[in-house]
């Protein structure tokens, strides 16, 4: 975050506003809550198995999105190539997983 | 570039020092490419695990084996360490090498705690549950996936430890900053992989 100011000498003075820790603590608390929901759903038992699978996967994907967006700065400007690299990596990983599940379950 | 070098020369650190030089920017970008490759690598291990998780060969099953409190403790430790490495980078951006070093040290100590729990967990399985590497297809897939993640944590501890030593020898500048930034990215990625491990391996193992 920069705000450039014209100095009397004609030069450009840079003034930086450093981000505080608040945003990251919010992400941390959000991650803790998602983790607690996932563990509680399993520890409590009695939750329908196929519902639990969907719930757990949604909690995991949400947490990963938030952490990669804020802690790894993927949501910031100028991250098109990193996002592309990660989409590429997750696409191949997902293809491998779907392929082997299909392979095992297809009978 | 020129302003970055001028600022480095007169003792001040540029804003976001990890991206102040072309070399620094290249390092960060190339590291993202590496993380894409890491995602593929862990993806193949997850694929193997998911395919073989029910092939227990009359050995222990996931439901009999796993204890959630231990997994929850390991998860909490790694999540906190990811937050402390965010604080380390924020201290770096404010040009406070001492604060940066302290947060990196806390991150390393938490990483050691996580690794200790994992070693304890594996040794319990081997000694008391007769669940070794060759017990079943499930055990092989489990140790390969979770052990590979643990090896990444161990590597990260050594790496960040060396960077702490280098930081106190050479100080914080546009050459050391990209190294520290990239190691923090690595540490976050290790935490992201763990989110999938505790979900897919441990929690789904309990659900069945």
UniProtKB/TrEMBL annotation, chain A:
Any one of the GO BP annotations: aerobic electron transport chain
Topology of this chain in the membrane: Multi-pass membrane protein
Superkingdom of this protein's organism: Bacteria
Segments passing through the bilayer: 25-45, 51-71, 83-105
UniProt entry keywords in alphabetical sequence: Cell membrane, Membrane, Transmembrane, Transmembrane helix
GO cellular component terms, semicolon-separated: cytochrome o ubiquinol oxidase complex; plasma membrane
Locations listed in the record: Cell membrane
Signal sequence coordinates: none
UniProt GO molecular function: cytochrome bo3 ubiquinol oxidase activity; proton transmembrane transporter activity
Family: Belongs to the cytochrome c oxidase bacterial subunit 4 family.
Protein name according to UniProt: Cytochrome C oxidase subunit IV family protein
From TrEMBL, chain B:
UniProt subcellular location: Cell membrane
Origin: domain of life: Bacteria
Transmembrane segments: 29-50, 70-91, 103-120, 140-165, 186-205
GO terms classed as biological process: aerobic electron transport chain
The keyword Ribonucleoprotein is assigned to this record: no
Domain Heme-copper oxidase subunit III family profile, first and last residues per copy: 29-206
Pfam families named among the record's database cross-references: COX3
GO cellular component annotations of the record: plasma membrane
GO molecular function list: cytochrome-c oxidase activity
Family the UniProt entry places it in: Belongs to the cytochrome c oxidase subunit 3 family.
Name of the featured protein: Cytochrome (Ubi)quinol oxidase subunit III
Organism in which the protein naturally occurs: Paenibacillus agri
């Amino acid at each position: 975050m920069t705000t450039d100011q014209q100095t009397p000498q004609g030069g450009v003075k840079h003034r930086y506003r450093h981000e505080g820790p608040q945003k990251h603590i919010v992400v941390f608390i959000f991650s803790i809550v998602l983790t607690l929901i996932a563990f509680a759903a399993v520890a409590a038992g009695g939750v329908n198995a196929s519902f639990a699978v969907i719930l757990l996967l949604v909690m995991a994907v949400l947490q990963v999105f938030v952490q990669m967006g804020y802690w790894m700065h993927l949501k910031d400007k100028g991250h098109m190539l990193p996002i592309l690299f990660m989409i590429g990596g997750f696409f191949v990983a997902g293809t491998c997983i779907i392929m082997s599940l299909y392979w095992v379950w297809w009978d | 570039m020129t302003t970055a070098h001028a600022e480095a020369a007169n003792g001040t650190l540029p804003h976001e020092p990890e991206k102040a030089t072309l070399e620094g920017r290249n390092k960060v970008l190339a590291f993202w490419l590496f993380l894409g490759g890491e995602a593929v690598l862990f993806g193949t291990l997850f694929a193997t695990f998911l395919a073989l998780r029910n092939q227990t060969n009359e050995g222990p099953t996931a439901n009999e084996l796993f204890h959630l409190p231990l997994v929850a403790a390991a998860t909490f430790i790694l999540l906190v360490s990811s937050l402390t490495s965010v604080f380390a980078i924020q201290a770096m951006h404010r040009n406070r090498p001492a604060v940066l070093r302290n947060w990196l040290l806390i991150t390393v100590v938490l990483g050691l705690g996580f690794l200790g729990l994992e070693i304890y967990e594996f040794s319990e399985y081997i000694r008391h549950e007769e669940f070794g590497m060759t017990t079943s297809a499930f055990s092989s897939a489990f140790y390969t996936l979770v052990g590979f993640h643990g090896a990444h944590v161990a590597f990260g501890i050594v790496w960040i430890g060396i960077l702490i030593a280098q930081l106190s020898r050479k100080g914080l500048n546009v050459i050391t900053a990209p190294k520290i930034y990239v190691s923090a990215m690595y540490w976050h990625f290790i935490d992201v992989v763990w989110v999938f491990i505790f979900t897919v391996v441990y929690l789904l193992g309990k659900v069945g």
